[in-house]
Amino acid sequence: MDKTRKTEGAGLSYEQALAFANSAGEKVVPTFCSMCGPNDGCGLYAFTKNGKLCRVMGMAEGQKNRGGLCPKAFASSQWLYSPERLTTPLLRVGERGEGKFKPVSWDEAIGIISDKLLEQKQKYGPESLAMLSPARRNYKGIMLRFLAVHGSPNHGHSGICHQQRSFAFNYTLGCWPQPDYKNCELIFYWGRQPILAGPATMLSHDLIELKNRGAKIVAIKPSMEADAGMADIWVPLRPGTDAALALSMLHVVIGEGLFDKEFVRDWCYGFEELGNHVKQYSPAWGERITGVPAQQIIDAARLYSKTKAAAIDLGNGVEHTPSSNDAIRAIAILIAITGHLDRPGCNLIPGPPEYTQPNSEKHLDLFTPDMVDKLVGPEFPPAFQPFLEGLSAAYYRILESVLTENPNPIRAIIAPGTQPLVSNRGTKNVIEALKKVDFFVTVDVTRPAEMAFADVVIPATTPYESDHPFELQGNWLMARNKVVEPAGDFKSTHEFFFELGAAMGYGKEFWNGSIEAYENFRLEPFGITINELRQHPVGIRLDKNPDSERTFEKYAKAFDNKSPRFSSAPYLPQGKAALYNTSFEKEGFTPMPVWREPPESLTVTPELAGRYPLILSDYHTSKFFIASWQRNIPLLREMQPHPTIHIHPGTAAERGICDGDWVKVESPHGWLKVKAEIYPGIRPDTVMVQHGWWQGCEELGLPDLPLADGGANANHMYSVDPEKVYDPLVTAMCSQTLVEVSKYE
Ligand code: SF4
């Protein structure tokens, strides 16, 4: 029997979908799912009967999902027809937080928001408007364009996702080198959930293919999920201690001479200083901080440095600590000095795009140097602005600025598809900020957590109710197609920004309100219009750019890459990998990576550990829900009705806790009520909850949970002390604290 796992795609081809629709008396529309927001959406066939969505099936032609869909997609019709759908714009009539609204028309709502923003622009300047970033939704580019055209730099990026990795890699290696799954013999999944995060099946396929061909998998994370279950080695570090682990591994690699001498000589700057610097980070020191046995740290460093084709896939987990930038650059340095950069099976320097790319809609060219001073709580220090998404502030710092009124308070906040009360740290402060800000607009598909605090609530279409934007995945270009008409007075978030822009006098910058013209502008490089693209039901395949053939060891080019700063200065002033970073040093930051303790931990606050002996952190994705959405969908909620905490059997037994017991989780900042899930695959000193729980499910009779104490929203459990919680360079925010868990009486 062939025991290898198969990774061929599932789903239907277009012909099969048409045949099925005919036999069932249904209509079929090829389109995309996008129920999880991040990434580009899985291709699927949507079937309708009597004008209503009745089922979805995976699209075998889908580039990323290869016909696979996750449970969320199969719950699409329950999302679309949820009793919690917002079906008309609402205007606040009661006090903030009371949740009293009256319905208004779409046009009235646009007029109210436009008048307010224009009035504030006149009084306080355009920078008084902030937008809170959605999680990589497909309208993010249009949102950034709106801010740029309005003249505000205050895009509140999460501060815990993607840009932090990108920043540290770029300022260390001049690029963000990606793991070469196809050729590696060893992969380190570090702070990543390749199976549960991202589009259905994409990374799962990679992992299975790796396993089938005998490559070794090392999972570095505090708890074991499906990916770590397939690993050969699990390195169970304490949450948030990635920098300490990487520094200890550097100590071993340099101390034992396991580095690539030629590469270090030719392409690294500051090796000698680094060698002296990491002497302090011995494996014994690393064990004390990370909880990983010293011998396992030594073994991991040796295994990585001695395996020729070894790659590291670094996930979002490392972006949730005050030492985030140093963790990521220490790992980048590890890749460099061991010679695992841009060689087959290692981390590869991105080459020119393999396929033509669309025109960008962002209009980042409108940002000017004088706007840097108008950032409220810059995400990156002013000297490193703008970065890849233009100028950016940090999400929580924007909300904090409303409370502190320092330096210039934000007067209006628009939050499209983001749910600040359950997405960001410091829930109690966020509530106060939303009560205090002059004007607050929320935009979402179903009732969002912050709705009671909004002045205007804008309903938005699901992807099934709109025909834009098109998607490009690798060589696959396909139009999005509308499946059903919106069941109320609402439009897409794209249309919201287009119409708001027109009402404020920015119509020209928004293609005079024409979504078709906007799609055609983006499609120009492909020489096709959106109407022509629609003639291809499952899209078209692009030819490979002739100059994109993979080459290796492109160091001279990558180390000369220009940064997006106004000066266009290169990322690496010496044209070499920055083991010693003079750009950071010049701005007063540490030139070499260091360990910075979280505000509360077993090692930094032993006095707290007496009362709160366990470490708490949280997961951001699961099989059933994405971030803080979708708990209102019965199909998904039946699979996981209650918020849970992963707790080690020994830790639970010491407290008399059994599987399924309701437990109280107390930190110095608040408490949660969740169900115990006895989980052998977690460190005994660590417990993990899932991010984003707040919403009830009407159909199953499950009520909303409190947003702070007594609920299951992990965000209010952490410190928000501005002196301790931020990474000083990239504003990554801490999601670790100390807790005690007891049976809920
Ligand atoms: S991963 Fe799931 S929710 Fe996300 S786009 Fe794919 S099928 Fe939809």
In short:
This protein is an alpha/beta fold. The protein contains 25 helices and 28 strands.
Tell me what you see in this structure.
With 745 residues, the protein is of the alpha/beta class. The protein folds into four domains: 61 residues, ADC-like domains (N-terminal domain of TfIIb, Single Sheet); 198 residues, 3-Layer(aba) Sandwich (Rossmann fold), CATH 3.40.50; 173 residues, Dimethylsulfoxide Reductase, domain 2 (3-Layer(aba) Sandwich), CATH 3.40.228.10; 138 residues, Barwin-like endoglucanases (Beta Barrel). Helices cover 29% and strands 16% of the residues. It has 25 helices and 28 strands. The strands form seven sheets. The chain has an eight-stranded mixed sheet with strand order 5-4-18-17-16-6-7-15. The N terminus is likely disordered. The site of iron/sulfur cluster has 13 residues, from helix 2.
List the helices and strands and how they pair.
Layout: H1 14-24, E1 27-32, E2 43-49, E3 52-58, H2 71-74, H3 76-80, E4 90-92, E5 101-103, H4 106-124, E6 129-132, H5 140-150, E7 155-157, H6 163-173, E8 178-179, E9 186-190, H7 202-212, E10 216-220, H8 226-229, E11 233-235, H9 242-255, H10 261-267, E12 268-269, H11 271-277, H12 283-290, H13 294-306, E13 310-314, H14 324-337, E14 347-348, E15 393-394, H15 395-404, E16 412-416, H16 420-423, H17 427-436, E17 439-444, E18 456-459, E19 471-473, E20 476-478, H18 493-503, H19 515-523, H20 530-534, E21 540-541, H21 555-558, E22 577-578, H22 582-586, H23 606-611, E23 614-619, H24 634-639, E24 644-647, H25 649-654, E25 662-667, E26 670-678, E27 686-690, E28 737-743
Parallel strand pairs: 6-7, 6-16, 7-15, 9-10, 9-13, 10-11, 12-22, 16-17, 17-18, 23-27, 24-26
Antiparallel strand pairs: 1-2, 2-3, 4-5, 4-18, 8-14, 19-20, 20-21, 23-28, 24-27, 25-26, 25-28
Helix pairs in contact: 4-18, 6-14, 9-12, 9-13, 9-14, 12-13, 15-17
Bound molecules: iron/sulfur cluster.
Residues 33-36, 41-42, 65, 69-70, 72-73, 199-200 line the site of iron/sulfur cluster.
